[in-house]
Amino acid sequence: xATKVLIIEDEPEIQAILEMSLQQVGGFDTVIxxxxxxGIERALRDSPDIILMDVLMPRLDGYATCRRIxxxxxxxxxxxxxxxxxxxxHDIERAxxxxxxxxxxxxxxxxxxxxxxxxxxxxxxxxDRRDLPRRPHGTPK
Amino acid sequence: MTDETYHDxxxxxxxxxxxxxxxxxxxxxxxxxxxxxxxxxxxLMLTKAAAATESSCGAVLLRDERSGKRRVAASFGLPEDSFxxxxxxxVNRILALGNEPYLLNSKPERPSPLMEALEKASAKSGMAxxxxxxxxxxxxxxxxxxxxxxxxxxxxxxxxxxxYSALAMERANACKDSEDRLGFLxxxxxxxxxxxxxxxxxxxxxxxxxxxAALVNAESTAVGLLEEDGSVLRCLVAHGPLADALRxxxxxxxxxxxxxxxxxxxxxxxxxPSNNPRLRPKDVETWRVKSALLAPLTLKxxxxxxxxxxxxxxxxxFSAVDVRVFETLANHAAIxxxxxxxxxxxxxxxxxxxxxxxxxEGILENLADGVIVCDADHRITLVNRAAEEIMETSAESLLxxxxxxxxxxxxxxxxxxxxxxxxxxDGAESPLHExxxxxxxxxxxxxASPVVVGGSYQGFAMALQDVTAAEEVxxxxxxxxxxxxxxxxxxxxxxxxxxxxxxxxxxxxxxxRFRELAAIAQNNSNRLIRLVDDMMDIAKIEAGRxxxxxxxxSLYECAVDAVKDVQQSAAEKCISxxxxxVGAPPLVPADRxxxxxxxxxxxxxxxxxxxxxxxxxxxxRRIHGFLRVSVQDxxxxxxxxxxxxxxEKFYQVGGPASRKAGGSGLGLAISKAIxxxxxxxMYVRSTLGHGSSFVFTIPAPAGNK
Lengths: 141, 705
Ligand SMILES: Nc1ncnc2c1ncn2[C@@H]1O[C@H](COP(=O)(O)OP(=O)(O)OP(=O)(O)O)[C@@H](O)[C@H]1O
Ligand SMILES: [Mg+2]
Prior knowledge:
The complex is a heterodimer.
Chain A: E1 3-8, H1 12-25, E2 28-33, H2 36-46, E3 50-54, H3 62-71, E4 80-84, H4 89-98, E5 102-105, H5 110-123
Parallel strand pairs in A: 1-2, 1-3, 3-4, 4-5
Chain B: H1 3-33, H2 38-53, E1 57-63, E2 70-76, H3 85-97, E3 102-104, H4 113-120, E4 125-133, E5 136-145, H5 152-174, H6 178-196, H7 201-216, E6 220-226, E7 232-239, H8 243-246, E8 250-252, H9 258-264, E9 268-271, E10 291-299, E11 302-311, H10 320-366, E12 370-375, E13 380-383, H11 385-391, H12 409-424, E14 433-439, E15 442-453, E16 456-466, H13 468-504, H14 512-542, E17 551-553, H15 555-572, E18 576-581, E19 588-590, H16 592-609, E20 615-623, E21 626-633, H17 667-677, E22 682-687, E23 691-699
Parallel strand pairs in B: 18-20
Antiparallel strand pairs in B: 1-2, 1-5, 3-4, 4-5, 6-7, 6-11, 7-8, 9-10, 10-11, 12-13, 12-16, 14-15, 15-16, 17-19, 20-21, 21-23, 22-23
Bound molecules: adenosine-5'-triphosphate (ATP) and magnesium ion (MG).
């Protein structure tokens, strides 16, 4: 059965790229929400297997959205992965406190990200996935 | 200043204080001659001696003039039958030993009957002091105390009291004329007060010569002290008609009559010394007097000078009693002189300290940084003006208070931790510890370092710096960085994502030119991303806001991951990458991502500067409290003059023109800052033409396995 991924992200281009990468890797269904409020609605309606979440969004930001999801018994089991431009220790700490499973630094390699999502699905949600945020310094020249 | 002199001076002062008491004793002896009972006098003396030495019982054992036998002339705190023949035999034994005060103790192998007598009155320690003037024994004073032992000082005081009692009794017998006797008493009173007071050497010497003149009824008196090298005696202060001739004059110790006084260490009276055949002709004029008294000034077996008195022709001749009195005065004068010297030395030291303190205070007061000094219990002992301003309060309300409790509650824990670290830091660690706290609207950086005197921890000194302004700038910068991060990274995410997808679907596209161009776009977007990241890192470093996420980290795993990161670019140049582990290095507290970033930076450089088919070696080993990581290549090396500068931001050897190798010159600056933030160091070793070794260390606290 395909993995249902809810993408909560306000940039249409990034939405598109995420959708396409997941398609490329295969085995994913995607649902898109443009901000936190909409994200929670879609989550309740579509019961996704995993959520990819932007941080800076209109109406409700990523941290608050994540906290609400984690407080809602119907949603709290869904792993949430943050996609964030800020990966300083205290930013990551904040995401983790909000209940995130992991953080991925923007700009990310979309295909790698799709692979990571599959892996999380396979292994099941082990909770804290601090190993996820890799700095982009490994990028070869 | 040796301990001995100090001790001696102390003892001297103690015994001189007791001297005051003796004056009343002497007066009583005089009363006795005019009818009072001698046992009243002796009882008084005993009471005084007991008070001065914290004794609980005691007795005076005198020889009865008629029977020649010893008897108890006075006692207190002891049963009447305390002293039998056994005790009296011990009295004789002690008197045969000499003039010094004597500690009594009863050992099973050698019992002391006197001590046994004292023990019956529940004394635990005892002492006996001979009363003797000039070889003739008057008696023995015995004292007992409930304390475990008598101190050296108490012993000396009691010895002095006994000697003076003997002298006083003798004097009472010798002086027929009551006015004469009164004069003697007054003189002793004055001298004793000089001995007890702290004054400079010159005024002490003046009192000594004046009083010496009164005491032995001499026309001229003088005091001379040995010069530093001990070979010459110089007359410092003199009194009477011969004063002008004597003052400043020096005397040879190896010539008569000084030689014999210094050798015997006894006072002497000379009659007609200028006619003495032993006198050198050149000294005849000096000694043209009728009679002279010379007494050595002795301190703990060392002669420090001479007290002299003289009467001119036609004047009085000195008596045997004068010699004894003079010698006693000389003994006390010596102590007074040593006291004065000590006093002067202390005054000089104090003045020096005071000057030093004033200077330091001036510096402290004018310092822009606040300074607070605390004792080991965190109580404030010193505050400068800047500190008052920063804490917005007065020194009075800070001094003596606990430093930690003056701070807002939320900072107390941080402060306590810092202060604990300060007080337990050993020499190997950097002794400076920092914390940032807020007072109202101000942000204060506190740096503390221990105050260690002679190896023992006395407290700590803190510098307070108002960093509010700098902190505001830092906050604004951080705000800016985070905005830029978002603004730049959003388009970069789209760019990177779409190129990645384009290339991933490239197998479907047969156009080679398209694929080549897409690869170029990918390379450059990656480069741009790296540049943005680096610029942001630099901005964070400069704003002092690069936070670390510290956890136990295996540097070996970091190195292996870093090698994976650069594997592809190494493979392109056929460079072999090796990670060497020396020993079994422990985990260290570090930010894993940041340390990996450092190693990746060093590896990227090493690969870039290595020839094709080259080799790059990463090695990790433990050295004195640190893990040391080196990244070695066999490339062109770095010219000596550039070795330091490669760590500057944007610096590239040969200037930006030589950028063919790529890069922006930020990697090493960032790496070094990251390492330093961890408490480590980064440096480079390089031989031109042979390669470079970039090395960094990360503290590995003992106990981390
Ligand atoms: N292994 C090395 N061998 C020779 N020169 C080196 C080596 N490593 C660094 N350097 C010199 O030091 C300079 C600064 O290095 P640094 O890593 O800071 O910047 P960069 O590599 O030029 O750019 P960036 O790391 O920001 O991409 C380099 O440009 C180079 O001249
Ligand atoms: Mg570099």
